[in-house]
Design brief:
Blueprint: H1 22-35, E1 44-47, H2 55-61, E2 67-70, H3 74-85, H4 87-93, E3 96-98, E4 112-117, H5 126-138, E5 140-151, H6 172-181, E6 184-188, E7 197-204, H7 215-248
Parallel strand pairs: 1-2, 1-4, 2-3, 4-5
Antiparallel strand pairs: 5-7, 6-7
Bound molecules: S-adenosylmethionine.
S-adenosylmethionine is lined by residues 16-17, 47-50, 53-54, 70-73, 76, 101-103, 118-120, 162.
């Protein structure tokens, strides 16, 4: 796999993942977030935004000043802007970037409606994940969603290093427990990914039963949002297929 190897170190596409799937992975992130009801007025944080593989779609979509990206490697952001977006749209949409390398999500001094961490936990140690989620908690409101991917495995990575290139794995139960430890209820979604990663969505919860931030309430809500959208999506798909086959007849 062509991920951040020495030969492509200065290749802004190859550095963040499989070169041939750069476009698919952009679209996959945008599709899921809009499926989860991201609107143009929402405040959006892209953790480890890299070369703006996701940002190339989110920045034009969101209103000015709504896209925030954290990325330690400024050259990736610069190349993403130069090759994928252009300076004009940056002037119009005014995205905000920061090069913090310790998941200090509070560095922007504001809360976010949606937080994306695509292909971050698939390289991160448990210490990094805890740090990231504990920071996320500080910048979330009760309606915010934290949307991430991880590589699902039978065992949990126990090292303390960021592994890159290369991947680390966690079990679904352990990932859920890491979220819960930091006060987030989560569900692993049945949403496709162009590679082997799984999507997980989390929301703030407390441990008091019967409140609208209780874990059960949040889980029920997350499940029903996803189910409702899935049903709508499947309904639309049926209609499209019917139309397609009618035209063939
Ligand atoms: C596999 S890439 C994913 C990039 C982007 N999320 C995407 O899907 O295109 C992982 C990214 O995380 C960045 N990264 C590494 N350590 C980080 C940290 N502490 N905080 C934020 N990003 C970090 C890397 O520089 C790299 O751009």
């Amino acid at each position: 796999m062509n991920v951040g190897t020495r030969e492509c170190e200065q290749d802004y596409k190859g550095f963040v993942g499989t070169l041939a799937k750069y476009d698919l992975i952009s679209a996959n992130q945008f599709n899921l977030l809009t499926f989860l009801n991201l609107r143009e007025n929402h405040y959006f944080l892209d953790i480890g935004c890299g070369s703006l593989r996701a940002g190339k779609l989110f920045i034009p979509f969101l209103l000015p000043g709504r896209y925030y990206g954290i990325e330690p490697k400024q050259w990736l952001i610069d190349e993403g802007i130069r090759n994928e977006l252009g300076e004009d749209i940056i002037k119009v949409k005014k995205p905000v970037f920061n090069n913090d390398d310790n998941f200090t999500l509070s560095v922007f001094g504001r809360k976010f409606d949606y937080i994306l961490a695509h292909s971050i936990f698939s390289h991160a140690s448990q210490h990094h994940i805890r740090r990231c989620l504990s920071e996320a908690r500080k910048v979330m409101s009760p309606t915010s969603l934290f949307v991430a991917t991880y590589a699902k495995g039978k065992f949990n990575y126990t090292g303390d290093k960021w592994v890159y290139p290369g991947f680390v794995m966690y079990t679904e139960a352990h990932m859920t427990a890491l979220f819960r430890e930091q006060g987030l209820s989560s569900i692993t979604l049945d949403w496709p990914h162009p590679e082997f990663q799984y999507w997980i969505v989390g929301a703030l919860c407390d441990h008091n039963e019967g409140t609208d931030t209780s874990e059960q309430y949040i889980l029920d809500n997350l499940t029903s949002i996803v189910k409702e959208h899935q049903e709508r999506f499947l309904g639309a798909r049926e209609t499209l297929l019917d139309l397609y086959f009618q035209r063939q007849e």
